Amino acid sequence: MAGLGTQDNPLRIAIVGSGPAGFYAAEALLKVAPAVAVDMFERLASPFGLVRSGVAPDHPKLKEPIHVYQRIAASPGFRFFGNVTIGRDISVAELQGCYHAVIFTCGAQSDRTMDIPGEDLAGSHAATEFVGWYNGHPDYRDRVFDLSGSTAVIVGQGNVAVDVCRILAKTADELRGSDIAAHAFEVLAQSKIRDIVMIGRRGPAQAKFTHPELRELGSLADCDPVVNVRDLDLNAASRAELADKSNRAAQKSYEVLQQFAARPAPTHRRRCHIEFLKTPIELRGKGRLESVMLMHNRLTGEASHQVAEPTGETAELSCSILFRSIGYRGVAMPGVPFDAARGVIPNRDGRVTDGATTVPGLYVSGWIKRGPTGIIGTNREDSVLTVNSLLADLPQFDTAARPGAEGLQALFNARSVRLVSYADWQKIDAAEIRRGEAAGKSREKFTRLQDMLGVLASEEQASAACVAA
Amino acid sequence: MTTVVTDNCQRCRFTDCVAVCPVACFHGDDEMLYIDPETCVDCGACISKCPVEAIYEDPIPPDKQRWIEINAARAPNLPPVESKQAPYPGAEERKKSLGF
């Protein structure tokens, strides 16, 4: 019997999810030993997770990590299996039977809700759905966002909230040429929104957005940022927070807010209001959203531990559309322990745990491991840590050879799973880029699975015709 | 947009920054690290990782401006540093002397 990690018996690892955490886990695995085989499973027909469907279309530079993932995908020992949902098409137990270990890097596919009356009214949306929609994610292709009113409210003050504000604030000319999905561009180009109101429950010293993203709101073609200078009065605890050396980024954001507050009266067609110390307590409207009731807050507590406490004063703000952007949330994977309170798979150093015990052979990385914090690069460090845990566990692994995806082929066939290989994806990718050229865009994404599979079918027909000729 | 490594990195090279770089844009010589501006995506992930605050992004302060050219000139001609390495001997003392 050949030892594990040899040419005859490679260490076979399945990675579930093809976003940054998945690719960086693959990179770390393929770097360490010569005989590692990584099979990556993705429920969509396209890879790259939130780099493709989360990063805003007008931030093309932040999508460049895709070049790194393309290089990883070209490594010997790496295979991609798209359009297969683990936990539905193939169970985790079936997957485990074919691999020495499984790493879940399936991210946080849902979002946190406000849990207030009226949240289900038409016109009340999750920011994550809007982001998926304008980025061409197939799950959100048919969502309808009514931008015919004058006021949009965004609840939350992280970078996703800023992305939503900016996309709503930009003119058609500013969006044209990005890889924004065509269906979203058409709706946004007709938008009647004039006032965009981004609301945070705490103050300017606690806002989570970062200063480069915030600063962008001040350099848009037809939108002025509006900040009330009174909102920038800080209590002693907030001043102490900003003075802390480790909080330099928040200090920079605060300076940007001061610059916004010092601007002359707005002159542009649109305004983006950044407001603090307010919490939505009710969404109101007959049949659809007409207004949001806001509770005013004050901060109490020690520096770095301040909480928003309601003052009792309320205000009603008319709006026709509202996006909650208060955090992504992980979704349970059937057959794997889940911490429902935190929306993550419980783990120690990336090893999946069930109560006090470790579940052998199961690992996690990325947002499903640590919750929805950090940016693309944070996942590289995180995945290296998880892979280090896996490698440290190798002496405990069953050394019997595993078949990898070949062992699943009968199940794929029986369950009519139409796999999309990396070569297939490259054809879809090339077709998207060709479609974009005509429109002066870097790419025009396919937003429906059948359109992606249609590209593959027509290429197969064309090559069959070539052979016949 | 530009992100640059500056003088505080000299004789420290803690390399915490490289672990979070999504595009492996750090390069190093015997003295310090440099960012290749052609590869860097200006995500800022590295900035808060540096224990001596050597990394700056726009707006880069006037007294650090010269590092833009130095990073651009040196990084492409040096080997990449893709994973965390041991800091230089004496890095902790240097960190203290820099006031961190």
Please tell me about this protein's structure.
The complex is a heterodimer of chains A (469) and B (100). Chain A has helices spanning 20-32, 49-53, 65-73, 92-98, 127-134, 159-169, 172-175, 182-189, 211-216, 236-243, 248-261, 367-370, 378-393, 409-414, 422-439, 449-468, and strands spanning 11-16, 36-41, 78-81, 101-104, 110-111, 124-126, 151-155, 195-199, 223-226, 270-275, 278-284, 291-300, 307-318, 321-324, 328-329, 347-348, 351-354, 357-364. With 469 residues, chain A is an alpha/beta fold. Chain A has two domains: 11-109 and 330-420, Rossmann fold (3-Layer(aba) Sandwich); 112-328, FAD/NAD(P)-binding domain, CATH 3.50.50.60. In chain A, the strands form four sheets. In chain A, strands 3-2-1-4-18-17-16 form a seven-stranded mixed β-sheet, sandwiched between helices. Chain A has a six-stranded parallel β-sheet with strand order 6-14-7-8-10-9. In chain A, helix 1 packs across helix 3 and helix 15 (422-439) packs across helix 16 (449-468). The longest helix of chain A is centred in the last third of the chain and has 20 residues, at 449-468. Chain A is globular, with a radius of gyration of 24 Å. Chain A starts with 10 loop residues before the first strand and ends with a helix. Chain B has 100 residues and is an alpha+beta fold. Chain B has a single domain (3-82), classed as Alpha-Beta Plaits. Chain B has helices at residues 16-19, 66-74, 91-97, and strands at 3-5, 26-28, 33-35, 55-57. In chain B, the strands form two sheets. A two-stranded antiparallel ribbon of chain B has the order 1-4. A two-stranded antiparallel sheet of chain B has the order 2-3. The mean pLDDT of chain B is 95. The chains are: A alpha/beta (469), B alpha+beta (100). Chain A binds chain B through residues 20, 61-62, 64-65, 67-68, 210, 212, 246, 248-249, 374-381, 384, and chain B through 1, 19-24, 39, 41-48, 53, 57-58, 83.
